[in-house]
Amino acid sequence: MKWCRFKYQNEINHGIIENNMIFPISGNPFSKYKKKEKPLTFEEIELLIPVYPKTFYAVGVNYMNHVKKMSELTGRVGTPPPAPDVGYRANNALIAHNKSIIIPEDATEKVQYEGELVVVIGKKAKNLNKENVFEHIFGYTIGNDVSERTWQANDRTLWRAKNSDTFKPMGPWIETNVDLENMITTIRVNNEIKDQFKTNDMIFGISEYIINITKYITLYPGDIIWMGTDEVPSNIKNGDVVDIEISGIGILSNPVIKQ
Amino acid sequence: MKWCRFKYQNEINHGIIENNMIFPISGNPFSKYKKKEKPLTFEEIELLIPVYPKTFYAVGVNYMNHVKKMSELTGRVGTPPPAPDVGYRANNALIAHNKSIIIPEDATEKVQYEGELVVVIGKKAKNLNKENVFEHIFGYTIGNDVSERTWQANDRTLWRAKNSDTFKPMGPWIETNVDLENMITTIRVNNEIKDQFKTNDMIFGISEYIINITKYITLYPGDIIWMGTDEVPSNIKNGDVVDIEISGIGILSNPVIKQ
Q1: Residue B243's Cα: distance from chain center in Å?
Q2: SS3 of A244, please?
């Protein structure tokens, strides 16, 4: 099942996508809702980020191949993280499918995409275990963790390196039924494949992260966890279009504008 | 003017505090509102965190005295931050005045308070300058940036060190009119004064932080910025009560429970 969030005639609502049409709902996708009878077309609506999180979690380095290749590239030995410790990103930076990534005026040329699987929490969750983790997940969407590498290396925090306005495209919608083991993430810039990797080939899996987080932290419906990226991302520049495809979910596409 | 947020008969509302009574409003404190005629008493309501932020910003080290004394204490030379780079905290950890700080079972004894001034944004803000910063501030409240120092030193991120559930008491209300230059922060544990410092004696002031943030990031009404703490905080333990007082705002008081 595909869930989207959209604006139609100045009202924001959630909807269910079927046969390329959007069925608005009454109620709340995370609890009780009713599908309305009359669908809308994609032309009639403005697609928004599929969920607005209470808290925006992000995993750092989470793919072994990424650690190895980055080590070869930089000549510094990278080590995989010792524990599934989560980090944070900021809501101001979220933008929807098709909206522009705007590179700030004083950014260097080292602005890069990162294609990531995004987990959307469905139920209030504390102290989860292996048996009940997945029943607390609502679905999955796609994120582009745009990063300015010079700022990432030199600032004390990731505030502008990863959270400048428009640096967190997310969407286009949430897919509730996925086959994690058989998903492939493909990143294209201007229709050319740049990276491709097995989406679930993570150092710490979704289950390990959520179990660890909920030992200390309550997750809420609509919270999002971005799961990290593999391979070695490339620079993006004014005029590019970045597509992150995850098989079974869809394609998140965003043009790039340099300020 | 004092603004609070509260629950009354299962509904959440904002209110204006006058003569120790709460006047509920209709509308929104950040845009248009109307004060209702009939006030409520503090006994009738449950006080909530005074604002629920879209994004929760926090300044790290921001007082020179804190840098010096921490250096003496640890024998390592601490250096003040080179720029007003902001960090983040998580909404899950926020609790209201009088609610319990719950120390997780496996935390060490090094759980400490940090008494902080909290800035509440009032208007959407991008690219602010010295002339217009303060007109974008709605008011000020008080935060206790509870921190588990062992986790803070050893984890890759501050996720559980600073964002475990209940680790971010905030309140009791927002004061819109303050005299920043003459405010004193006083921290008491079980009514004994532990630390006292000039609230506005910051390395980078409120204005510098907001100007720097809004070069890259849009701030929204209700966003909060925690401004850091001075002195060397002490441990807190089961049964303690921590009061953070900032003159001109009020007292944020929270009991401590060890799980």
Answers
A1: 12
A2: strand
CB B185 within 8 A of CB B200: no
Looking up tokens 């428009």 gives A166
Q: Does domain B49-258 correspond to CATH entry 3.60.9.10?
A: no
Classify domain B1-48 at the CATH topology level: SH3 type barrels. (2.30.30)
C-alpha distance from residue B50 to each of A237, B37, B45, B170 (Å): 42, 21, 13, 7
CATH superfamily of A51-258: Fumarylacetoacetase-like, C-terminal domain (3.90.850.10)
ipTM: 0.94
Q: Which residues of A touch B213 (CB under 8 A)?
A: 159
Q: What residue in A sits closest to B160 (Cα-Cα)?
A: A216
The shortest CB-CB distance from B85 to any of A87, A156, A220 is to A156
Q: Which of B150, B48, B153 is nearest to B91 (CA)?
A: B48
Residue A29 neighbours by CB distance under 10 Å: 24
Contact check, Cβ <8 Å, B215/A92? no
**pLDDT tens digit string along A85-128?**
999 999 999 999 999 999 999 999 999 999 999 999 999 999 99
Instruction: Answer positive or negative: Cα dihedral of A130, A136, A142, A147.
Output: negative
pLDDT (tens digit per residue) in B179-231: 999 999 999 999 999 999 999 999 999 999 999 999 999 999 999 999 999 99
Size of chain A in residues: 259
Indicate where chain B has its CATH 2.30.30.370 domain(s): 1-48
Helix, strand, or coil here: B220? coil
Out of A88, A160, A213, the one facing B216 most closely (by C-beta) is A160
